[in-house]
């Protein structure tokens, strides 16, 4: 994740934290600035995070096998961690990210690794799947929402409802609401987010962190996440968890 050679943009002046539903929310931290590069840099990950990412990767591979998926579509892909799942399964991959610099770096990696026939990328918003769904491969894709991406989105319900319409299997990987996890997240975000505020109660039973340039990330309790999935018409096919978070495989009811 640091291997992309992406450099963090200079810090703009600190602005008041934006509400997660505000329009500038995504534009600020992820779309254009260096926020994506900072938060996805391995150098900023507390040690505990690596086990969580391993859990997520193995859950994704198991889902591909169990649900007979014919492609992997990774949202918030940054440098394409789930490309390894597609490589291991021998199926097409598409990485989608709102950050054009990250997508350009992933495209270069795909070229360097001779995977042009298997892997594609696009710049797109996970919440606007109707805009890019025609470009993704597979009739039964595994759509991966990695590394607490769901907790970054202003409107998780809208995002999940849109993704459900794609007809595949969705893998959702989120941080839990446990105090220990909140402490690990605080240490993580303190390394890459300026103006980090004390965590507040989130919308889904977890803790929400806010910072400069509209940074906003919330975690999920299991009951609140299950309720959200039900409300979106999604049923749980499998789930696995470690002390930091959980990965769930879901499909349309
Ligand atoms: C996977 S998330 C990681 C979140 C972080 N670990 C946390 O705890 O909140 C970061 C990646 O998602 C991308 N991203 C953020 N919002 C997005 C959106 N709405 N659509 C697509 N990609 C998005 C960013 O550009 C970045 O590459």
Structure, described:
The protein has 253 residues and is α/β, with parallel strands linked by helices. It has a single domain, classed as 3-Layer(aba) Sandwich (Rossmann fold). 36% of the residues lie in helices and 22% in strands. It is built from 9 helices and 10 strands. It has helices at residues 24-32, 35-39, 47-66, 83-89, 100-112, 129-132, 156-164, 179-192, 222-231, and strands at 71-75, 93-97, 119-123, 141-145, 169-175, 200-201, 205-210, 216-220, 234-241, 245-252. The strands form 2 sheets. It has a 7-stranded mixed beta sheet, sandwiched between helices. The chain has a 3-stranded antiparallel beta sheet with strand order 6-7-8. Helix 3 (47-66) runs parallel beside helix 4. The longest helix is centred in the N-terminal third of the chain and has 20 residues, at 47-66. The radius of gyration is 17 Å and the shape is globular. The chain starts with 23 loop residues before the first helix and ends with a strand. Bound molecules: S-adenosylmethionine. S-adenosylmethionine binds next to helix 1, helix 2 and strand 2.
Strand content: 15-25%
Q: Count the strands?
A: 10
- The rough form would be described as globular
Treating each run of at least 4 consecutive H or I residues as one helix, how many helices?
Answer: 9
Keywords: Methyltransferase, Transferase
InterPro entries: SAM-dependent_MTases_sf
Protein name: Methyltransferase domain-containing protein
GO molecular function: methyltransferase activity
